[in-house]
Amino acid sequence: MNPHRVLAQEILNAVGGASNVESFTNCITRLRVNPVNRGMINEAKIKSIKGVLGVVDDETYQIVLGPGTVKKVADEFGDIIQSGDGTEAPKAPSTQAVGQDIKAELKKKNNTPFKNFLRKIGNIFIPLIPALVGAGLINGIAGLMANLMQTGFSPDWMVTLQPIVSVIGSAFFMYLTVFAGVNAAKEFGGTPALGGAVSAIIIAPSVANITYSYPIFGEIKLNPGQGGIIGAILAAILISYVEKWVRKRVPAAIDIIVTPTIALLVVGFITIFAFMPLAGIISGGIGTATTWLLAHGGPLSGFVLAAAFLPLVMFGLHQALIPIHAELIAQFGYTALLPILAMAGAGQVGAAIAIYLKLKRNKSMRNLIKGVLPVGFLGIGEPLIYGVSLPLGRPFITACLGGGFGGAVLGFYAMSGNFIGSMAIGPSGLVLVPLVTGPLGIGASILGYLLGLVASYIAGFLLTYFFGFTKELLLEHNKEN
Predict the structure, then answer these.
(1) Which of 376, 401, 403 minimizes the C-alpha distance to 388?
(2) Residue 233: what pLDDT?
(3) Taking CA 222 as the corner, what is the angle to CA 220 and CA 223, rounded to the nearest 5 degrees?
(4) Among candidates 383, 312, 398, which has minimal Cα distance to 350?
(5) For a tag site, which of 29, 121, 155, 300 has the least CB within 10 Å?
């Protein structure tokens, strides 16, 4: 039998059956389930399923499966639900009551307006990650071919193939604003096509013919792409609200004609006269501020960014960085932030090795580390964070500080203008290596990134081994089990 279907069925049974799944989706590593009743989820059973790397109990219930596997399992998961084969779990009233209490408590803690907004922003880009990774890698191949041709190695097949590969890799990024607009409208309750339509204005070549004047600011001349991702998201969010406002006030008989026309026309004008110039200033500021911070802050900036990243993830604030990554890629062809932040996971890997050596009697912890450490090297850090370092407390802090040292290495590169960047967002750890690029070229940039990883591994190990355990903590956790 298909192993991915078996895994999907086991997960579905453990989350309470098909009737307990309100909706689900997946990102690059996690199956994200929105349950009807959290009290019906058997978390211990989920963690015991072979193939499950960990769980994250956030606004959605997230099951970590790893890249590649998660998409196949998600497809089978949906197919089982649609086919009606999902096992139904018993619905005891007392269990449901407990589940509702748990859900209410989680909503109280995690569903603040600000965090909910950031979560929506993150959800705009999660479905785009496979295309970002694939197109980014192809762009890298096209760039490598172009570099070889400049050195004199230019056989006829490469001369013919290079522009084709370049188009395949770059086309998605040319229309990234449209994809972002479609997803933003969907996320904020609007019609996806209208979100895409208003976002397409930003990259339309004919906007180059638009010129107008403002008092004080003088003449404004627009350029295709001005405002970028940020402008597209603002426009798509606004058109979602305008569409809903108009629809409430228009007779149903003419809704299909009047509502989209008015919404697109009104928000189109606002996009041209406000969002494009304003978001253009913001986008330019993001690029300037990021490069200035890394170039002038150097190792200190890199250390702080890498060391603080996982605490940001825990509070859900990392979602705000996703559009910044996308904007940097649109401006420079890479984001210099992502490789620095990826060092945080490497610090966890080093810490896990130290914990393994320190807790020689704790067989369950050592077995857990042996199972999840390989995927930690590949950039899937959730099992190490939520299963190993965070429950111990102090080792989580030393692991974060260890990651800071790798960030400092990349900050040192950035200080001289030799940024180590990533052509796409999503992967981390060793999986990010094929996407690494920068002013130094692909080869030297990859070497710099690997140096950062090694620094994080070593620092995370040393800090955790020597400072991660008090005598009391070691006595508590280093027991036979």
Answers:
(1) 376
(2) 93
(3) 150
(4) 398
(5) 155
**Tokens standing for 321?**
């960085």
Q: What is the residue extent of each domain of the chain?
A: 3-111, 128-286, 333-477
Whether CATH 3.30.1360.60 fits 3-111: yes
pLDDT band at residue 110, thresholds of 50, 70 and 90?
low
Q: Residue 54 has what pLDDT? A: 79
Instruction: Tell me, yes or no, if the pTM score tops 0.70.
Output: yes
Q: Among 27, 41, 55, 459, which one carries the catalytic annotation?
A: 27
* Number of neighbours of residue 146 by Cβ within 10 angstroms: 15
Token pair for residue 366? 């050592």
Q: Which of 438, 244, 241 lies closest to 337 in space, CA to CA? A: 438
pLDDT number for residue 98: 41
The terminus-to-terminus CA distance of the chain in angstroms comes to 36
Is the confidence at residue 382, as pLDDT, over 90? no
The Cα–Cα gap between 256 and 267 comes to 17
Half-sphere exposure (CA, 13 Å, Cβ side) for 123?
18
Q: Give catalytic status of residue 27 as yes or no.
A: yes
